[in-house]
Amino acid sequence: MEVRVLRRVLEKNDRAADEVRELLSAHGVRAINLLGGAGCGKTALLERLLPILRPALRCGVLEGDLATTLDAERIAAIGVPVTQLLTEGGCHLTAPHVRRALDSLPLDKRDLVISENVGNPICPANFDLGEHARLAALSVAEGADKPQKYPLLFKDAAGVVITKLDLLPHVSFDLHRVTLDLGRLNPAARLFLTSAERGHGLAGLAAWFRGMARGNDDATGPRGGRAILN
Ligand code: MG
Ligand code: ZN
User: Phi and psi dihedrals of 159, rounded to 5?
Assistant: First the structure.
């Protein structure tokens, strides 16, 4: 019985994800699902990245959180269309959430929709949101063991972004180990080393977003396991 219930939930999700993909392609819009643990710096990264992408790339953002509109307010403050999705206790976004929220974004005037998932390194990875690519975020403050402990977060990601690199002198984080583990887990993923605080590594990541928006799934950036500090 439990298995049947779980399957029904995932089937419902996958149907909605297909609807999302159809709706997006009807408008020529591409979508990215940004995933990572709570506090890994997803919103801060978007705050720095969105102004770089504008005006060439017209982005819309969906913010997934359990409570508050704090993150949506930060995105709205930089003038990017945003919808806050409140899961009210749910620990991940689902495709039906995204499908409903797309009605609130001006899709005719957007090139790329970025969904910032609920801060959680675990179950968001199990739910297809109808995205064209996943970007997994890991901050140096979380620890170098995370790719091994949460492999699903990284396994299907087209890109992996290491955040808060400015904290590296203050934390114990073995960047070499992480690049090796990511290279083993997902050798095709593009790897980006960034600091939103210092503005480091954002040009390379912006190029990846532009490539994704053009439908170029082989977008620029070093492959996993060959991280370059920039
Ligand atoms: Mg956030
Ligand atoms: Zn969950």
Answer: -140, 150
Q: Over range 37-64, report the average pLDDT.
A: 97
Ligand nearest to the CA of residue 124, numbered in listed order: 2
CA 3 to centroid of ligand 1, rounded, Å:
32
From the CA of 87, the nearest ligand is 2
Q: Using the structure block, give the residue that is written with the tokens 């005006």.
A: 55
**How much distance in Å is there from the Cα of 71 to the middle of ligand 2?**
19
| Band of residue 221 on the pLDDT scale cut at 50, 70, 90 | low
Q: Are 126 and 45 in contact (CB under 8 A)?
A: no
User: Residue 10, Cα to own-chain centre: how many angstroms?
Assistant: 20
pLDDT in tens, 149-173: 999 999 999 999 999 999 999 999 9
DSSP assigned state of 226: -
The reported pTM is 0.92
Which ligand neighbours the alpha carbon of 64 most closely? 1
